[in-house]
Amino acid sequence: MIKQLIQKLPERVRLPVLTAVYGVSGGLSAVAFMLSIHHLHALLWPRLMALGAWGFLAGSFVAITVSSLIAGVLVTRVCPGSAGSGIPQIKASYWNDMGEVPFRSVVVRFLAGVISLAGGTSLGTEGPTVCIGGGLASNAAGWLGIDRRKRRRATAAGAAAGLAAAFNTPLAAICYVLEEILGDFNSRLLGGVMLASVAGAFVVTALIGAQPAFMMPKTGDPAWIVYLAVPVVAAIATLAAVLFQRYALGLRLRLRESSRLPRWALPAAGSVGVWIVGCAVYFACGRIGIFGVGYSDLSEALADGMGWRVAGLLAVGKLAAAIISYGSGGSGGVFSPTLFIGGMCGFFTAGVLGIWIPLTASDRLILAATGMSCCFGAVVRAPVTSVLMVFEMTHQFAMVPALLLGTLVSQGMARLALRESFDDGVLRQDGREPHRVTAPRNLAVWRGIEVAALGSGTPVVITDLRPEVLRQLLHRHHYRCFPVLIEGQPPGVVTRMQLEQALAAGTPPVMEKAVTCLASQTLDEIEPMLIQSDVGLFLVREQEGGPIVRLFTLHDLIRAQADIFE
Questions:
Q1: CA-to-CA distance for 538 and 528, rounded, in angstroms?
Q2: Which residue stretches of the chain have pLDDT < 50?
Q3: What pTM does this model have?
Q4: pLDDT (0 to 100) of residue 35
Q5: Residues 6 or more apart from 431 whose CB is under 8 A from it?
Q6: How many CB atoms lie within 10 A of CB 550?
Q7: Nearest to 351 by CA among 309, 316, 389, 321
Q8: Which alpha helices (H) appear in 120-187, and where do they start and end?
């Protein structure tokens, strides 16, 4: 009935109504996700702390290993690919799948995130919240009759609403979706993202309250000497971000390629390392911020301050635990750990510098907030979002100049040390790099576009048909079709299903005829060739007889055509 009512609305009314629905659904999913984790964590960990040293050791071990094992089974057996933060996956869904997100992945990510984060996995809530919000909005669009090729608007709106509700930061949510997911501040979806973000903020305000994410004393205007300390804090926080990205992605790749353990057991194996680090920090300083999201320790530090020794210990411990958690396939995001690590780096640096230079409690808070912004911004490579997010989370105007200065330093260092953002690194490892295409509005110009402008780059080519090589290729890449180029044979194409059937039967795979075209050919020229490919795939060469430089699929064509009418 609701579907019919919405379809009867005029176009100018229907679009904002649908966007508001996406925003509310994203906001509600974010609130449900956060409250579930908070209540389960509060129910479990204080009781473990009350059991004494041996009780805490035994109880925390059971909690983190069992929860990680359950989450591992969910994200590998029930819905493969649901591990990690979810933001790389929502980016790939937006660009490569036109916004379509399977409902099963939304449910599994919600359950796995709640179980693992409440159980002690050292990651965060915000990444999964963005993915859950975007995925739920995408499915809501389907339930309301929106074609599966027109769900990008819903996915972007739900992601913005989810992030706005997660931190109570609507402005940062708008910027993040435009800056990181859409990659365009001039996107046609700007209005929808803004409306959905506001809707998400209204939801969290109505259900939880309008307070900022972190309560802290009001900071005064910093002395000039603070701005000399800001680059130092930014450098240390960025160094921590670089270490996190390199080692987390490196561990993730090594375990996926060479581990003897099954994929579902890797999060549980990694949880043992997190347990060791978390217990060591707990018995050293009495804090459990290593387990789970860790915002209780960060909130307490921002409200009451923290000694530099404890802050340094928490920063190193959280860095090690977050690397292990993400690298082993844990369910959770990178927002919370990078904010936590950056904040503790700020307190540590301020405490050490305070031995030689006069720094007030207000100055230390400003440097801690600067560390949060720099570490987070260096990992996600979203400088505007990092400044806005920390400002909205604290509601402190006096720290904005320091945040801006620190961001300049951190972004410069990050671009020298890292070639891509964390999310893009995850997608590259998964073989799902976002294929961004901005199609023209004019149909005549559209038909004259060269194949090279729309085809997918970095083709994965099969040059060896040995079973062990094919198994590794299927394990590392999620593509539906693969070109086959065996020396002395004409080029062919084999589908994923054909490879799996051949491996199961122990026979060579059946290959389809490959259709080739030149990168300089236009869509108008290759249109008659579409019927020649049984699998809807073209091998693109720069010149006749040259190497395969990219692929062009019917999906590329449909995705780009959808941009014209979006």
A1: 13
A2: 439
A3: 0.84
A4: 93
A5: 460, 476, 477, 478, 479
A6: 19
A7: 309
A8: 126-143, 152-167, 170-176
